[in-house]
Design a protein that fits this description.
Number of strands: 11
Number of domains: 2
CATH topology of the largest domain: Rossmann fold
Helix content: 40-55%
Structural class: alpha/beta
CATH class of the largest domain: Alpha Beta
Largest sheet: 7 strands, mixed
Number of helices: 13
Distance between the termini: 49 Å
Shape: globular
Strand order of the largest sheet: 1-2-9-6-5-3-4
């Protein structure tokens, strides 16, 4: 590791694969050095999108070439609308045309869409080859790049076709956040606040008391971000997710707690035709859930007030501008529904949540009550 690359390493001993998440500043320059011991072959495919490639593509390719890798590149048009079976199929064809073998690998360079799609392609090409996640968005750094979930969207909903494939390595260079828009950075704090609720008062209060997006709104980019503090915060969020994933890799129990705010959030996303960011929808879903649960005596009112205040302090939404019945109808189509029930993740206290199997009609009561600010 280069001397200039201040970093933290989070070790992830998942059952199917053990790997490290390297979070720091300037670590992108050392990507090739970190990847070389993990790949026995000589060929890599960089999968990225049209936004990220012009910013970081050549830098990443040069670092990998310096370690003797032959580099192939697949760039697709940026955006959730391209996370489809068609793009996935094209990616597989490029992998085959590039001559990738089981000894070679994929570098997923970009945000959550890139990571999901590249990971799914790696999971299914030759029944699975190595993938290294290199997230360049805050949302991907704290959430989607860690844990092994990969997927593409179908017409019937988000992430309906997918597979589990833990990465061999995750490299998170927070300096790449400088080129994000403040709005995109802010959106990611929906997931970060969720992790704070799951972790407990220590991390939650750090997030709530000192919003990292303060002073950024109205700026063109995030060049003035406190990057050193961001390294620490991102690593702390990765540890929260790591602990849950290691305990329940395949989402059969504890990992369902990571869906806190997501059941309602996904319905809000769909109702907005995916015009709202994922983190913003999670933040709104979390606030709605807690208010509704408080109305039913499930979440203490002071806890709900603290969570809603935190969401507001980041400028994130605390309700949805969509009819309650439209959101509820979308809940009924949620892929995580079990027959006539949904596993509701209920906040009991900061750091204490419970997965409660709940009749969909009772959960609808929570939604209706929670939509009222």
């Amino acid at each position: 590791m280069s001397e200039h690359a201040a970093h933290e390493v989070v070790h992830v001993p998942a059952a199917s694969r053990t790997y490290d998440v390297v979070c720091g500043r300037g670590v992108l320059a050392d990507l090739g050095e970190m990847v070389r011991p993990l790949i026995t072959g000589h060929t890599l495919l960089i999968v990225t999108d049209s936004h990220v490639w012009p910013l970081y593509g050549e830098r990443v390719a040069d670092s990998l070439r310096s370690q003797g890798f032959a580099i192939n590149i697949f760039v697709f048009e940026a955006g959730e609308a391209r996370k489809t079976l068609q793009t996935y199929g094209t990616c597989l064809e490029v992998m085959a045309q590039s001559g990738l073998t089981r000894d070679d690998g994929v570098i997923a360079l970009g945000g959550g869409v890139v990571g999901d799609l590249a990971g799914f392609a790696a999971a299914t090409y030759m029944r699975g080859i190595t993938v290294v996640q290199v997230p360049t968005s805050l949302l991907a750094m704290v959430d989607s790049s860690v844990g092994g979930k990969t997927a593409v969207d179908l017409k019937g909903g988000k992430n309906l076709a997918g597979a589990f494939l833990q990465p061999a390595l995750v490299v998170e260079d927070v300096d790449t956040l400088a080129t994000l828009s403040p709005a995109l950075l802010t959106d990611a704090f929906g997931e970060i606040i969720k992790h704070g609720v799951l972790s407990g008062p220590g991390l939650f209060n750090e997030i709530a008391d000192h919003p990292l997006n303060a002073g950024l709104m109205g700026a063109r980019d995030c060049a003035t971000l406190d990057f050193d503090r961001m390294v620490s915060l991102v690593a702390a969020n990765v540890r929260v997710k790591r602990d849950v994933v290691v305990a329940d890799e395949r989402e059969r129990g504890l990992r369902q707690t990571l869906n806190l705010g997501h059941t309602i959030g996904h319905a809000i996303e769909a109702a907005s035709n995916y015009s709202l960011g994922h983190g913003s929808c999670v933040a709104a879903g979390l606030a709605i859930l807690c208010r509704g649960a408080t109305s039913l005596g499930l979440t203490p009112a002071p806890v709900t007030r603290a969570i809603v205040r935190c969401v507001e302090s980041y400028g994130l939404p605390t309700t949805a501008h969509a009819p309650a019945e439209g959101i509820i109808e979308r809940l009924r189509a949620d892929k995580k529904r079990h027959g006539s029930t949904v596993n509701a993740v209920i906040v009991r206290f900061l750091g204490e949540v419970e997965v409660v199997p709940m009749d969909i009609d009772r959960f609808a009561q929570i939604v209706r009550a929670g939509l009222i600010p």
